[in-house]
Specification:
alpha+beta; 6-stranded mixed beta sheet; 3-stranded antiparallel beta sheet; 9 helices; 40% helix; 26% strand; globular
Length: 358
């Protein structure tokens, strides 16, 4: 069979162009579609495992450290190869054995992960700094269960404490006050007002109560718990300036101390179960009696769980949060979100660890 050289050149060029065009048009979108979800899933899962590992170590009174993923860069390489098979001599010698034209390609992705070690005085300051009053108000008003959010984030209100490391005689009064606040918030007669400064940033937060006739009884009960006078008649608005701390500066101010990310982690670590033999051996300390109840329940066992929400192995045992424990999952996710947002907000220039992934 005779093949025209010009025809062969045209056919080979067409095959190469088609293969290259196909690779160029599909490489970018397909790499994003396949890679973005995979990176997001891995980062989310490893963040949860890192946080759970930190809670377990805190329960064992042992040191812990964290790495934050700050950047993921990925380079993609797509190569195309083609071949032309020609036969010479008698046609019957190669009939049916040659493929006239063939094209192929290969794809390789090389990601680089950049980690930031969380350490030093700046990191410590971010961990122990209470959640801002602005964020406190926004979370209470946006979360579906305002009472749960108030209990989680409030360490002290008007001298009513709910500490993590000891028991307070006023914690029951604080629980009643927070329940009343949640009820008034659901009724739409309690909210937060945000005062802005010259630069449009929030300069202060006020607690506002609309003393309607239907809510006047609960408002009076709340103000009595907070040590504030009740309004003389219905229809008046009560406006109290929130001040971070335990001691207010005046009669119109209401002292409020929110929990810090570290305090939330310490509280959550009290919900970690520890094997009895390790408690008896003194490897882990006994549980601390406190007014605040742990909002995450972490199970412990010798075998790896089959379908956990998150799990880690430590000191020969597995620790995990059950996938059907909605309350623990919600508390864990809220703590993770607050921790990451606080650390990102105050992020400073630090040494970074860059690792290529093969």
């Amino acid at each position: 069979m005779y093949h025209s050289p010009r025809l062969l050149r045209l056919a080979a060029g067409a095959a190469l162009c088609a293969a290259a065009a196909s690779g160029c048009t599909q490489l970018g979108p397909s790499s994003i579609a396949n890679g973005r979800a995979a990176y997001t899933d891995v980062i989310t899962r490893t963040n949860d495992e890192q946080l759970l590992g930190s809670l377990v170590r805190l329960r064992y009174a042992e040191t812990t450290s964290m790495l934050m993923v700050t950047a993921v860069t990925s380079s993609s390489e797509f190569s195309v190869d083609s071949a032309i098979n020609l036969g010479f001599g008698q046609h019957r010698g190669y009939e049916g054995n040659l493929v006239p034209f063939s094209a192929g390609g290969s794809y390789r992705e090389s990601p680089t992960i950049i980690y930031e070690p969380l350490s030093g005085a700046h990191f410590l300051k971010q961990l122990v700094t209470p959640i801002s009053l602005e964020l406190y108000g926004l979370l209470v008003e946006s979360m579906s269960d305002s009472e749960w959010t108030l209990r989680l984030l409030t360490a002290s209100l008007a001298g009513l404490d709910c500490p993590v490391s000891y028991e307070s005689p006023r914690s029951a009064d604080l629980a009643r006050a927070l329940a009343l606040m949640a009820s008034l918030n659901r009724a739409g007669v309690m909210g937060f007002a945000y005062r802005t400064g010259d630069d449009d940033h929030v300069a202060g937060v006020d607690l506002v109560l609309d003393n309607t006739e239907a809510a006047s009884h609960d408002i009076a009960a709340l103000l009595q718990l907070l040590g504030k006078p009740a309004p003389e008649k219905t229809g008046e608005h009560v406006r109290l300036e929130l001040q971070m701390g335990r001691i207010p500066s005046g009669p119109e101010a209401l002292s409020l101390l929110t929990r810090s990310p570290m305090e939330l982690m310490r509280l959550a670590s009290q919900g970690v179960q520890v094997p009895d033999e390790q408690l008896a051996a003194g490897i882990a300390p006994a549980a601390v009696m406190s007014s605040a109840a742990p909002f995450v329940k972490v199970h412990c066992g010798s075998k790896q769980p089959t379908d956990p929400f998150v799990s880690v192995e430590y000191r020969g045992y597995w620790f995990w949060v059950e996938s059907n424990d909605i309350a623990s999952k919600r508390g864990f996710s809220t703590m993770q979100t607050l921790l990451l947002s606080c650390l990102h907000e105050g992020s400073a220039a630090k040494p970074q660890l860059t690792l290529p992934v093969n």
